[in-house]
Structure formats: C-alpha cells, structure tokens
Amino acid sequence: MDDFLPVILGADIIAYYLARCFHEAYGVKSVVVGRERWGFTDHTRILDFRLEPDLWQRDRFVDILVRIAQDVGAGGRQLILIGANDQYVRQIVESRDALSAHYVFNYLTLEQLNSVQDKANFYELCARNGMDIPETVIYDLADDAPVPTFDSFPRIIKPSNGDTYFRAQWPGQKKVYRLNSNEEIAATIALIRRNGYRDRLVIQEFIPGDDTLIYDSVFYCNRAAKCEFVSFGQVLLQEHSVAAVGNYTALVSRVDRPYMDKLKAFVEAIGYVGIGNADIKYDARDGKFKLLEINVRQGRSSYYVVACGFNLARYLVDDLIYDRPATFDYVTKPMLHTVVPMGVIARHVADDDLRREAKQLRRQGSWVDPLRYRGDLSPRRRWFLWLHGLNYFRKYRQQSW
Fold first, then answer.
1. Same domain, 273 and 394
2. Interior CA angle at 301 toward 350 and 2, to 5°?
3. How far apart, in whole angstroms, are the C-alpha atoms of residue 55 and residue 165?
4. Which DSSP string do the residues of 177-240 spell out, in sequence order?
5. Angle, nearest 10°, between helix axes 58-72 and 86-94?
6. Residue 26 maps to which CATH number?
7. What is the spatial distance between Cα 71 and Cα 336, in angstroms, rounded to a whole number?
8. 87 has a pLDDT exceeding 70
9. Which residues touch 391 (CB under 8 Å, ≥6 apart)?
10. Which domain holds residue 184?
11. Is residue 227 part of a domain?
12. Cα angle vertex 232, ends 391, 278, to 5°?
C-alpha cells in the first residue's frame, strides 16, 4: 500500500496483533517502535521493529517520533500512529500539536482523556450517565484524611492515575490489590504513599465470582464520535500474576444487545473517539453488569473481534485515510480467543459448560490465538510460541488471584 504506513508504539502482544491486523487486511509491514525487545514482536516477518530505549521519556518522545516519520514517511504516505498501551496513548495526546504535522491518529482530547483514563473522574462520568459501577470510595493521597474503614471484604485498591502510578516503580508493586481487612487496607495505602504515588486511589467492593463473571467489550468510534461496532465477550481466564491481573488469556464472544446498546449510547454521549476496550463484571446479587473501566485503546484480548470480521486496521484506515464512515453493527459471531493452551483451559476453568463450549469452538475451527499467524511462523517464532504456551501451565499452577 502506498497511501499509508502504520507506526505502532510498544513491543508486547498488542503491538504484534495490531501489526497482524494491518498485514492481514492490506499486506502492509508496520513499523513497530519499542523501548525494549520482547518475544512477541521478535523473529517476525510482518513488522519492522525499531528499538528506542528512551521512547517512554517525555522529553525525548516527540523528537524520536519526528525522526522516525522523516525516515519512513517518504513518498507522500500518511503515517497512522497507534499506541499499544495507556502510557503511549497519553503521550500521543499530550503531544498532539507537534505530532499532527507528521502523523494521523484518532484519540480523545486531553480533557476527555483525563475524564476517562483517570478512574476517579471516570466513575463520576458513569454516575452522570446512568452506568452501573461497583460501590466505590475515592481516597486522595495528597490529603491527610483518615484512611476509610469498611464492614465487608474483600476490597480492591487500584490507582486512579495509572500513568503516574506505574512510573513510581517499586519491588512487588501490584496493578490491583485485593485486601481482606481494614488493617491490610491501611498498610497498603501506607506502602503506596511511601513509594512516591501521591494521586488518588480507588477503593471498591470486590464483586463476588471468578474470572467467568468478567466481561469484555471492544468498540470503535470514528472522528465524528459515532460508534461503528461493539462487541461483548465472556472471560474464561485472566492472568493471575500480581503485575498482570486484569489481562485476559481466554474468552468467548457473546451477544447481549441491551448492554451493548447501553454501552454504545454511553460512549457516544461522552464524545468518545477511537478504539476502546471496556472491562465489565456481572454482579449476581442484583443481576447487573458493572462497568469497571474503559481502556482508551485496544485491549490485550481485543483481537477476537478481528476474527469475527471486524478488523481494527480497516476501521482506522477507512476513518483516517479514506474518510469512509461505517454503518453501526454488532459483533455476533461465536469465537474462542485464547493465548493459553487448551490444557490450561481444561484445568483451570471451573465451569463444565464453559470448558465444553471452548472445546467445541476449537473443534469447529471457531477459535483464534492472535500470536499464531499462519503467514508468520518461522522456526524461531514457533519455538517462542511453544515456550510461551508451556509457561502458562506453570503460571496457573503457582499463582492465584
């Protein structure tokens, strides 16, 4: 393709499957820029990897991307810029004026980003727009207010501002804390404060139930803030390591049109643009789906919508390059998405019916692993994928959430 070239920031599984989206749809070889090399984007034929160790540094970010644009943007091609994680999305938005001269992208304004990506602001947005959420308390570490106490447990603690939280790194830092007493809550807040995070914390009730009560939704809103598709998926397994809990390793697509319509109405009401990924949990106590967060990007498991016929690359290209809005549609095709071997699903999904369903979808060929791309399976990549799958047997045996 001579009209455009994707430039993807990141080196993880998301960066790989985004490159796969463009390669599948257009045969184009994406430029992938990362600050370190990961196996996901190594030994592959479908992308051109550029190592930039300073990419995460805000004072170097624009200079690096301008240099890359000057290097790869010859011939009048438009460069589509995509962040594979929250930090890169924020840096793109914060650098919009400087980057817009070299790239096209579809992201929220900085004000909108702060209202969605900052969890405390996001829950206020949900309350104003009628979206159900878990019982939530916001605690500001910038104040000296007493630590709140609770009568029921477990409780979840997570940062409101993930960007500043993960920049304050320390040994044993967790993405989400699941706590069982007021003493544990006080100690965890003290630990987070001591290690330099000074923004707000979100303290929520833990909605009862295992991974299979978690749901996922992927959607795309064009530059006119009109939603073009929405999906719904039931999680079978999520990562159980302290650093990765919340990343889904296996799910099956579902259809719940009332909730899909509700989510579509919400994102259009708040003026959302770009790819979004919603995390949801079903609360059996009141029969409601509770919205946990919206990631302002594609999620780790979002490739299932591509396998269902909704290629994320085509939506971006049609919107940003050709100005061709799509008619809204629901993702309805049955699909199993997994990055773990079927043996892990068989051993660690407790629900018999879901295990059988996963097995049946696999047998029918209605399944996808975003890392296993038929056009990109060199011997070295096959070896990496075999080790990657094998490692999950150890991880799920040793870790619990």
1. yes
2. 160
3. 18
4. EEE-SHHHHHHHHHHHHHTT--SEEEEEE--SS-GGGEEEEEEEE-TTS-EEEE--EEEEEE--
5. 80
6. 3.40.50.720
7. 39
8. yes
9. none
10. 135-205
11. yes
12. 75
Would you tell me how many other CB atoms lie within 10 Å of the CB of residue 285? 9
> Do 216 and 302 belong to one domain?
yes
For residue 239, tell me if it sits in a domain.
yes
* Measured distance CA(224)–CA(349) in Å, rounded: 41
| Residue 290 backbone phi and psi in degrees, to 5 | -105, 125
Quick one: average pLDDT of 331-350? 97
User: What is the domain count for the chain?
Assistant: 3
Contact predicate 225/272, CB 8 Å: yes
Q: Does the pLDDT at position 327 exceed 90?
A: yes
> Could you tell me where the beta strands, DSSP code E, fall in 77-197?
78-83, 136-140, 155-159, 177-179
DSSP per-residue letters across 259-300: HHHHHHHHHHHTT--EEEEEEEEEETTTTEEEEEEEESS--T
Cα–Cα distance, 276 to 295 (Å, whole number): 6
Considering the domain boundaries, does residue 219 fall inside one? Answer: yes
Please state, rounded to an integer, the average pLDDT across all residues of the chain. 95
- Calpha distance 231→313 (Å, rounded): 16
pLDDT digit string, tens, across residues 26-80 = 999 999 999 999 999 999 999 999 999 999 999 999 999 999 999 998 778 999 9
Q: What is the pLDDT of residues 278-321, one digit of tens each?
A: 999 999 999 999 999 999 999 999 999 999 999 999 999 999 99
We report the CATH number of the domain holding residue 342 as: 3.30.470.20
Residue 238 and residue 141 in one domain = no
- For the stretch 233-273, pLDDT in tens is 999 999 987 666 778 999 999 999 999 999 999 999 999 99
Query: Which tokens is 5 given?
Result: 């070239």
What burial class does residue 178 get, using C-beta atoms within 10 Å of its C-beta: 0-12 exposed, 13-18 middle, 19+ buried?
middle
Q: Per the confidence metrics, is the pTM higher than 0.85?
A: yes
pLDDT over 70 at 188, yes or no: yes
Rounded to 5 degrees, what are φ and ψ at 380?
-70, -35
Q: Which of 263, 257, 237, 232 is nearest to 248 (CA)?
A: 237
Q: How far is CA 347 from the centre of its chain?
A: 26
Rg (CA), the chain: 21
* CA distances for 92 relative to 22, 58, 152, angstroms: 20, 10, 41
The sheet with strand 4-9 has its strands ordered as 47-51, 30-34, 4-9, 78-83
